[in-house]
Amino acid sequence: MRARIIVSLSLVLLLAITLGCIGASNDAKDNLAKCLTSKGVKMYGAYWCPHCANQKQVWGSSFKYIDYVECDPNGANANPQACKDAGISGYPTWIINGLKYPGEEDLGTLAKLAGCKY
């Protein structure tokens, strides 16, 4: 009986810690995404691109704060002309301080390149 109580309390404590960490992580991602957008950082991609999907998944719900440009004319809110004007040739491509960074980038790298805290 006593062992069951200890195991139950341990599980509750672990759950509380996990939920707290997830919330902090989301806040940090939200803040980073907002910082990137405030500095003019853009992600160019296509709705069918698996690497773009991976990049969006890393951001989770914080992706809504990223300035995303859809390059495929069949995608939602497409702006293929902006992609052409920016010289985008592969997806995803991040533009930070006028420089192109093709491929998936981790959040820490994006923060460092843009001068944002993370």
> In percent, how much strand structure appears in the residues?
5-15%
Helix content: 40-55%
How many helical stretches?
A: 4
Q: In total, how many beta strands?
A: 4
Question: What is the CATH topology assignment?
Answer: Glutaredoxin
Order of strands across the main sheet: 2-1-3-4
Mean pLDDT: 87
Q: Label the overall shape.
A: globular
Query: What's the CATH architecture?
Result: 3-Layer(aba) Sandwich
Structure description:
The chain is an alpha+beta fold and 118 residues long. It has a single domain (2-114), classed as Glutaredoxin (3-Layer(aba) Sandwich), CATH 3.40.30.10. Helix content is 52%, strand content 13%. It contains four helices and four strands, in the order H-E-H-E-H-E-E-H. The protein has helices at residues 2-38, 50-59, 80-85, 107-114; strands spanning 42-45, 68-70, 93-96, 99-102. A four-stranded mixed sheet has the order 2-1-3-4. Strand 3 (93-96) and strand 4 form a beta hairpin.
Task: Spell out the blueprint of helices and strands.
Elements: H1 2-38, E1 42-45, H2 50-59, E2 68-70, H3 80-85, E3 93-96, E4 99-102, H4 107-114
Helix pairs in contact: 1-4
Give a brief outline of the structure.
The chain is an alpha+beta fold and 118 residues long. It has helices spanning 2-38, 50-59, 80-85, 107-114; strands at 42-45, 68-70, 93-96, 99-102. The chain has one domain (2-114): Glutaredoxin (3-Layer(aba) Sandwich).
